[in-house]
Amino acid sequence: MTLVSFFSFLSKPLKILLINSSWRLPQPSFFLVGIPGLEESQHWITLPLGIFYLLALVGNVTILFIILMDPSLQQPMYLFLSMLAAIDLVLASSTAPKALAVLLVHAHEIVYTVCLIQMFFIHAFSSMESGVLVAMALDHYVAICHPLHHSTILHPGVIGCIGMAVLVQGLLVLIPFPILLQKLIFCQTTVIGHAYCEHMAIVKLACSETTVNRAYGLTVALLVIGLDVLAIGVSYAHILQAVLKVPGSEARLKAFSTCGSHVCVILVFYVPGIFSFLTHHFGHHVPHHVHVLLATLYLLMPPALNPLVYGVKTQQIRQ
C-alpha cells in the first residue's frame, strides 16, 4: 500500500489535523488521462491538435517577425497584435507538447510541480489574452470615434503601460492558484481526466477542504470574462453608433471592415471559452469527453487561427 492510498483510509478529523499540522504529505505525481472515453481514437485526435500547434508556431512567429522588421507597422494596432502573438505562442506551447505526448506516446505522468506550473501558465496567459483583446477594442474605438486624437491618446508610452498592466494583472490574479493548490492534500486519486493540468480538475482530486479554491477560481473566471466582455461590448456599442452616423455606405463598410478581423478573433476566443466554462460548472449532462475536447481546442484554436484571420483581413500584414 502506498503512502497516498493509506491516507485515503483516514477519517475526516484526522485529515483536517494533518492539513493544519506542520508535517506534510509528499506531493504526488498526476496521471493525465487524455480524452476520457475516446482512448481508441486518441491517435486520430493528435492530427488536428498537431496541425493547430504547428499553425500557432509558424503563424505567430511570422506575425512577430513582420511587425518587428517593418517600421511602418510600429502603430498601436500592430503593437497590440504583436502582444497577442507573443501570448499565443506561450499559451500554445504550454498546452500542446504535453497534450500531444499524452495522446500520441502515452506519456501520462506529470510531476506535481510541473503540473502546477503548466496550470499557472495556461490560466495566466489566457487572462492576458483577454486583456489584450480589450486593449485592441479600445484602439478601434479611439481610431473610429476620435480619429484626430488617436496618435495623442495611444502614444507609445500609453501602449507600454497597457501592455505592462495586462502582464501584471494576469500574473497577480493567477498567482494565488498554485499557492492555494499547494495547501491541498491528495489522498484518494491522482488521475486527471484531461490532456493537461486544469485548475478545477486538480481541485476536484483533493480530499481536503477546497471551498476557498473553488470560490476564488469562480470569482476570477467571472470577473475576467465578465469585465473584459463588458468593456469590449461597450467599445463596440460606441463604434457601431459612430459608424451608423457616417454618411455613405462605402465609408460605413470600410469602417466595419476595419473591425472585422478583431471581431473574428474575439468570437474565436470567447465563444469556446464561455461554453467550456459553462459546461465545466453547470453542464453536468454534457459528456466529459466533449468538455475535455472543447477545453483543449479552446486553448489551441485562438493561437492557430488568429494569425490566419489577421493575415487575410489586414492588408499590411498580407502584403
Automatic annotation (TrEMBL):
It is found in: Membrane. GO terms for molecular function: G protein-coupled receptor activity; olfactory receptor activity. It is a multi-pass membrane protein. It holds the Pfam family 7tm_4. The lineage of its organism: Eukaryota, Metazoa, Chordata, Craniata, Vertebrata. The chain crosses the membrane at residues 44-67, 79-104, 110-138, 158-181, 220-243, 255-278, 290-312. InterPro entries: GPCR_Rhodpsn (IPR000276), GPCR_Rhodpsn_7TM (IPR017452), Olfact_rcpt (IPR000725), OR51/52/56-like (IPR050402). Keywords: G-protein coupled receptor, Membrane, Olfaction, Receptor, Sensory transduction, Transducer, Transmembrane, Transmembrane helix. The keyword Nucleotide-binding does not apply. One of its GO terms (cellular component) is plasma membrane. This is Olfactory receptor 52L1. It comes from the Eukaryota. Odorant receptor. Residues 59-310 form the G-protein coupled receptors family 1 profile domain. Its main location: membrane.
